[in-house]
Fold these 4 entries.
Entry 1:
Amino acid sequence: MPEKPDFAERYASGNTPWDSGTPSEELLRVLKAGKLTGSTLLDFGCGTGTNAIELARRGFRVTATDIVPQAIQIARDKARGVVTQVDFRVADTLRDDPGGPYDILFDRGVYHCLRTEDLKAFQEFLKRATRTGSWWLSLAGNSKEDTEPGPPVVSEKEIRDELEPLFDIVELREFRFATNKSDFRPLGWSILMRRK
Ligand SMILES: C[S@@+](CC[C@H](N)C(=O)[O-])C[C@H]1O[C@@H](n2cnc3c(N)ncnc32)[C@H](O)[C@@H]1O
């Protein structure tokens, strides 16, 4: 099992390759296809808020959480003067009340971390944060290409075993993550789901 990353230390030292500074192309593709319907949205593990801000700019009522106070502070600073309606909060997805239920959940690079930390607590979070019909778009590392260093990875079988008890998988496709290095684009899964 990969070592649990110390995210506070990584933000403090600037070792955050996932923080591309631009909204996720895969998220934009799904939005363009009109798949994410509803208004309230939770971006859990939002990091420095690039996607949360873009989603708020597009009219979603966004709550965005991260366990690292420094990331939330950067996100709040970035949102100032751009959007007012993002509710940025420091919160632990595995332990704190997520609020909701939300129409939509979004995560980029968080399911693939929390599934190995405490899958039961993560599944409890999913139950509380959604209701029947809620959407969830998860962007996760893909085990077909386990690059080191790279994101934690997950297989299609693991996705189906862990998430299908609660969600219908509407679309499962491969894509490449953008990072803050133009020549580093790890393979990912784009998992679009609807709560049963
Ligand atoms: C790979 S980063 C992705 C950040 C952001 N989603 C993005 O795309 O830039 C994973 C994020 O999850 C956050 N995180 C890890 N464990 C968490 C937890 N238990 N609760 C909330 N956030 C967590 C980390 O602090 C980090 O910002």
Entry 2:
Amino acid sequence: MKGFDHVIEPPFEEVFRQDHSLKGRWHSDWFRNSNPIVLELGCGKGEYTVSMAEKYPEKNFVGIDIKGARMWKGARESLQKNLANAAFLRTRIEFTGSFFSAGEVDEIWLTFPDPQLKKKREKKRLSGPLFLNLYRQYLKDGGIVHLKTDSRALYDYSLSVVEANSLPVVSSLTDLYGGLTGDPLLSIRTFYEEKFLSQGTPITYLAFRLPHEKEIISPEG
Ligand SMILES: C[S@@+](CC[C@H](N)C(=O)[O-])C[C@H]1O[C@@H](n2cnc3c(N)ncnc32)[C@H](O)[C@@H]1O
């Protein structure tokens, strides 16, 4: 990873309760263009980051995960494919507020996050109120959050967050491949997705807008 100059691996002290030097400067100092920035949070091997970067050269993509060994695969692939619009950031998602300034991010993808279904784990759910309020800090007003998951329970929970907060739904599918959307963006398959599909588990997809106006609250009270 150290040899990859499109991978950022900041030490903990650089981001804990302080801003990283790239915050507010991704367009000018990193991508050197003004194209929209899309994040894949918990990117694992980065299949979405790499495939989206290939399909959409007019957008910038940042894959974020804490596990370097997984990320290495996507980082190597994007280098081999010469994708100047793909970057990887190795950090905890909890620290993303140290990396991105208000309105700097256009869209967020959550690809097969750990469901964290126990009630006391709600704070760890990437589509729960705690994380959505973090994303509100840097996602454009009304920017889209996409969630792809094999977990029907996580999908149902996320939809209940959306409904409890009257967030505008862009798309909501309980069986993505049964639904035949034909959307090339939705046909990208991640490592975990292939695993669940081979077990016959339906893949769900939820996309919604995240306006800034109100703090996101839990549907569980
Ligand atoms: C189930 S895997 C999914 C990986 C990939 N998106 C896929 O679909 O194959 C969840 C990923 O989220 C990452 N992750 C979970 N919590 C995280 C956190 N708080 N900060 C950074 N990465 C996290 C894990 O390291 C793991 O790679």
Entry 3:
Amino acid sequence: MLRIDVFTLVPHAFAWLTEQRPLAAVLGSALELRLFNYRDTTPLRAGQVDDEPYGGGAGMVLRVDVVAAALDAAYGGPPEQPVVALTPKGRSLTQAVVEELAAAPALTLLSSRFEGFDERVVEHLASDAVSIGPYVLSNGDLPAMVVLDAVARRLPGALAEGSGELESFSEELGGALEYPHYTRPAEFRGWTVPEVLLSGDHAKIEAWRREGVR
Ligand SMILES: C[S@@+](CC[C@H](N)C(=O)[O-])C[C@H]1O[C@@H](n2cnc3c(N)ncnc32)[C@H](O)[C@@H]1O
């Protein structure tokens, strides 16, 4: 079983994700998900978690002592499992990174908001930093959900038998994109389905599909 711990300011935001596949299919069997709120363990008064940036400038910064307190409360010291800070400055999330994360026995995901983490979180408390793309979102919760969904798909029981192997970026397809799919009707507004798919000839269909992904 893979255990993923997410540290966030809005644990309730993850509810919808846990109610549907693939997470719903693997929760309690292949995946244990724990959600931690930085505010529950902050050493500061009145649930404070952020502060003004040294050197001035707009926005607030998630404090390093707040993140450290949350990790200490959960693990009683530095966690042994990978601790992944979600930040636009991290390494890009690719399918290879997803496979790597899904192979770990346990993972910690750190989400931030505001102007982001105090850099010492990324340097000293996290062991890895991941970006879901070259754009800036308002918080790390959507990136954490992207990682959760992508990782959960790789766990046993998440998908129907076989449907996870022949996907875009999979080893089976040599990292290429998957072939196109079609379903009924065979013709719509004059747009037809490739003849080969209606032929019933499985060898030809397989060859057409393999050709399409090159
Ligand atoms: C508004 S962003 C901070 C952006 C930061 N000031 C910058 O310019 O790089 C707030 C938080 O959202 C999350 N975030 C935003 N975009 C992200 C991305 N592309 N990948 C991963 N996390 C992201 C991170 O946790 C980040 O600390």
Entry 4:
Amino acid sequence: MNDFQSEVKQRIEDIAGNQPLQRHAADFMQASLLPCYSYNYEWLGRPIIQYPQDIVALQELIWQVRPDLIIETGIAHGGSLIFSASMLALLDMVDAIEAGATFDPAQSKRLVLGIDIDIRAHNRAAIEAHPMASRIHMIQGSSIAPDVAAQVCSIAAGYKRVLVCLDSNHTHDHVLAELHAYAPLTSVGSYCVVFDTVVEDMPADMFLDRPWGPDNNPKTAVWEYLKTHPEFEIDKSIQHKLLITVAPDGYLFRKCTN
Ligand SMILES: C[S@@+](CC[C@H](N)C(=O)[O-])C[C@H]1O[C@@H](n2cnc3c(N)ncnc32)[C@H](O)[C@@H]1O
């Protein structure tokens, strides 16, 4: 490791113990969630409901893992699908450069598989009309419906390096069911990213209009799932690095088969 990288690693470890900085970050998270800060961004023209820090973290993971399939629950306006598809397009280009071959998008097998219970017609139309559309396949239905999970498993069987992102209904039971259905598809060395775990760290009265809240959210589901799934570990270095993230304890690294 060169000097720069070891300095970065040390800085990230120091952040973990920097209580004033952690408090400022937590204050920002709380203050920014209410005015829907995460709704302010677009990726290649489509609204993406994420914090920019998490988008950068995903870019780093995609470069590290080089997945050929990204499974995403929760499509909304499609920004996260377009983001993932654009990263896969870059990986295809890099593969071609490394192989000394001509970059031919038509030859790409890399795919983003998105699942949503309600793909609005205008969102579907905009996603299907987007230049990244050829790398995107959408399934409409509840992510925890057995027939939907079966379709996803059957598609995933054709891929080797799989990254999973869970960002749909944020109740404990739903996310736990998603983890049981989709986390096993995560390849060894890849990640299952569970969004909105931050709900656990927020005040109870922040989510009165939602079925989730403290004690009933993606983080409690992750903790429950990990009790019986030692093949995954929380990659804390990501949340320490980001400070601002909706996914504390949500970046799950798959270290072995089981
Ligand atoms: C937070 S948004 C997803 C944001 C998107 N990943 C992005 O980054 O732009 C949550 C989405 O989950 C979908 N959803 C809610 N319940 C669901 C379920 N049971 N199965 C699949 N999708 C669901 C909603 O329709 C909504 O589009």
